[in-house]
Amino acid sequence: MTLHSDREYEAELRRLHEQLLLMGARVEDMIAASMRALTQRDSELARRTIDHDHQVNRLEVEIDELCLRILAKRQPVASDLRFITIALKLVTDLERIGDLVVNICERVIELNLEPTLKPYVDLPKMAETVRAMVRDALDAFVAADAARAREVIDRDRTIDAYYAQIFRELLTYMMEDPRNIYRAIRAQSIAKYLERIGDHATNLAEMVVFMVGGKDIRHLGSQEPTGLRTPRGILFLCVANSARSQMAEGWARKLVPPGVRIWSAGSQPASEVNPYAVRVMREAGIDISTQRPKQVSEVPLGDVDTVITLCAEEVCVLPPQGLARLDWALPDPAAVRGSEREIEAAFRKVRDELRDRIQALVAPVSAGEVAPGSLR
Question: What domains can be seen in the chain, in order of their start residue?
Answer without folding.
Answer: 7-222 (1.20.58.220), 233-367 (3.40.50.2300)
